[in-house]
Structures are given as C-alpha cells and as structure tokens.
Amino acid sequence: MDVRSLRYFIAAFEGGSISAAARRCHVAQPSISTALSQLEEQLGTPLFERHRRGITPTEEGQRLYPLAQKVSEDLQTITRLFRRPSPVMPVRLGLMRSLGANRMTTLLKEYIGQGDNLALTLVNPEEPCDARIIGEQELATQEAFQPIWYDRYRLALPGGHPLLLKGRITLDDLEGLPFIWRHPCAAMEQLADALNEAGVRCQVRARLRTIEYTLGLVAAGIGASLVPTWPEILARHDVQCRPLEGLDIHQTIGVAYPARGATPALAPLLALGQQAWEAKGRGGIVR
Fold first, then answer.
1. Which helix (DSSP H) or strand (DSSP E) does residue 175 occupy?
2. Which of 160, 217, 156, 163 is nearest to 188 (CA)?
3. CATH class, 3-82 region
4. Stated pTM of the model
C-alpha cells in the first residue's frame, strides 16, 4: 500500500467523485480510478459504490477514512520536521474589480496551498505586478494569457419589475429605463456601443465601481443594471436576471503574465487556471 493511493482515496472520499479527486490531486481521472482499484484489491474489499452521480463510500471505506487521514497527517508532520525552509517566493498579483468573491477565494486558496513558501500580495491590475487576473480585452502586447472563466452578462431587474412579465426584453425596452452604470467594465462598454447604435438612451441614476453595490441598488428598486451570471447572483431572490434579445455580452477572464521571463512561482496558478477552463468545456460557462 503506497501513500499516493491513500491520498487519492482521501480526495475521492471528500470530493464525492473521481473527477473531483482528479482536480484536487492534479492528475488524470484514470490515475485515481486505477489507484483506488489497486487499494481495494490490496484490502480485499470495495471502498466505494460507483453510480452515475459520483461515488459513495462503503462501510469499509468509512472505516478506512480516519485511519488514512491520520497516516497522511503523520507524514506531513515528518516532512515539516526534516524539511529545510525554502526561500520565500513573493508574488504580486493584480486583480481587476468584480471577479466574484466565491470563485476568487477558492482559486487563491488553492494557489496559496501549493507551497508554504509563497508570499502573495494582491494589488490593482495597473500597478507593477508579476501577473494580472483581467479580462482578455485588457491584455497587453507583451503578455501571454491563460483563460480561467467565461462570463455571460444579463440584465438585472428588481423583483416585481414590469419587464419581467415580458417574454423577451429588447434594447428598445431600455429607453428611459433607470439604470445603474458600472465603470470600468468591459461588458458595460459593449452595452453602451449597442445602445448608441440602436439610438436608445437609458436613464443613468448612479455610477458605481463594484457589482456588490450595484446589486444592492438594483434590489432596492433604484434601477436596472448589467451583471455577470455567477451562481451566487442567479440564486438571489431580490434580483432577477434576463437576457437581452439579440445581444450576447460576454468576456473571458484569465491570468495575464509576461510572455517571457515569468516567475516560476506562477506555474501553479496557471495550472489551476487551465484546470478551471477545461473543467466545464470552456472554463465554466455560466448561461
């Protein structure tokens, strides 16, 4: 029995699926499946029940889990006791506004967890930094780009708004509509171009920089706005999101980094970005 098989078992147990374990351990799904099968063969008992929605630990799997955890923790303790401290690797990461707190927290937690010697400093994307998480349209000529997320945008309206009763909402419906405008925002710029071309003028009631404040004003009935279809936004009950007929507003978010001479400390972040982009067949498109 090897330590790697136990690590894969723990990841599968906690993740509830082979795919989740593969993402967590940064390996292909067949590697997880093979290791678990070998572990089950060595122990002479099935550890998981496989089904279409994932895996469920058997009674024997439940018994193994705390033992596997203890072995893993003991090995980490031994490693820390005898490992020489690595030099600190400082990384300055520029973040554009309105990236989504939930997904950014998850990404940064996984990135920081890649190594004990990473010292991360978050700055504005226009400040000197080693890499930037920005929209692809903001990419500089000397930067390479690893996409992470693909965001679609919808019209956000307060609950009970008359436009919610319509089967479809068009640009003409925005004529004179009280609106909360965000700047800077590439999606808002796309909307502004479409409105100008259609000769439509909405009534700007407020200009803000963050999505959080924008959603608050929309919920309060101050005006409509344009927001990304993040799960936490779609789950709100005080704000309803609807597509604009014939208008597909979107942007790709990712890591912009020097095409030459990038710090090696960025490698785990780029790998995480690639995994997120491939996980849902185009970086987790939210429709």
1. none
2. 156
3. mainly alpha
4. 0.66
